Amino acid sequence: MSSFDVIVVGLGAMGSAAALHLARRGAKVLGLEQFTLAHDRGSSHGESRLIRKAYFESPAYVPLLERAYALWDELADFSGRALLHRTGLLLVGREDARGATERARAVAEKHAIAVETLDVDEARARFPQLVIGATDVLLWEPGACYLEVERCVEAHARAAEHAGARLCFGERVIALEQQGAAARVVTTHGSYVAEKLVITAGPWATKLLGALGLPLRVHRVVQSWYAAPASFEASVGMPCFAYDTEQGFYYGFPRRGGEIKLAEHAADDEVDADTVDRDVRDADSARTAAFAARSLRGVGASPTRAKVCLYTMTPDEHFIVDRHERLIYAAGFSGHGFKFAPVIGESLAELALTGNTTLDLGFLRRRDR
Question: In whole angstroms, what is the distance from residue 139 CA to residue 100 CA?
């Protein structure tokens, strides 16, 4: 039976980052993943994710974002590949002080984040691809970016291996056992022991951490791609964009390969990660298609392709990062966690090796509701 300092279960965004930061700190690390590297079964796929600092979800995330930006740039330098693209973000909202635009503005003021309020005429002139209403409230964040999802996961994994971590793919965890001074992991290929276990299993955390009774629910979400004209290219000034509308919260990215990606930040019915329906039907993209028709000029009427993604939700939509005996875990990223992967990975490594973190994660500790 092989023995390690730390075993990481789940090598998506968070787990691959945790493996890297553990290995760089000199730990003997084993990473286990039931699928292939950068697979499309969980939440760490779909080509692109937003990263922004005027974080309307809560100002408590801003210090984590500052560190995440630095770590993403460091990883890109190490990998020699572009991972983060600084396009800026136009946030379009309603005349509502409780809306995303006004909350983002308040966070920006609190943390001195560079943002700019645009009037309607100015926004229409700068971004003619976007339909902007006469009463829309507009916030421009020039430092916002998008990340290339699969490249990011691959870069973390390769850097972890370079630092000495052993990563195993196609090996599913069957059981976790805490045995006094050690923990044991049983997989489809055998068993391993370690002083600590880091669990970053995405939607499978509901099963692997079931004994802890965490308030986690897995939901099915569909990401869609639409044909778009060249005016949606980042090279001609097209940014990332997000619309906080009465119909829902929609966001999208500049054109790549002739398509733009659109998604709605909303959770569908609760599902099981092992049995979820991964077939995408016309109805799954109906809401993004309607958004595209009313808000984006020249975009195709129906998606060229679509993909199922899984959100692991908490009741308050904030993450859970905590520890229990020899388990250190991160779960419930609620559809907005990917951008934080390197800093969550770094914090998990610190928790596993020292019991503390250098950044304040107190607001992300376990909550039962």
Answer: 10
Q: Are 128 and 228 found together in one domain?
A: yes
Alpha-carbon span 297 to 292, nearest angstrom: 8
Predicted TM-score (pTM) above 0.85: yes
Q: How far apart are CA 363 and CA 223, in angstroms?
A: 29
In a domain, 197, yes or no: yes
220/264 Cα distance (integer angstroms) = 12
Question: What's residue 56's pLDDT?
Answer: 97
User: What average pLDDT score do residues 267-277 get?
Assistant: 93
pLDDT-derived band at 97, boundaries 50, 70, 90: low
Whether residues 132 and 166 fall in one domain: no
Q: Which domain holds residue 291?
A: 89-142+217-313
State the chain's mean pLDDT as an integer: 96
Helix (H) or strand (E) holding 116: strand 116-118
Is 278 in contact with 271 (CB distance < 8 Å)?
Answer: no
Non-local CB neighbours of 186 within 8 Å, separated by 6+ positions: 173, 174, 175, 176, 177
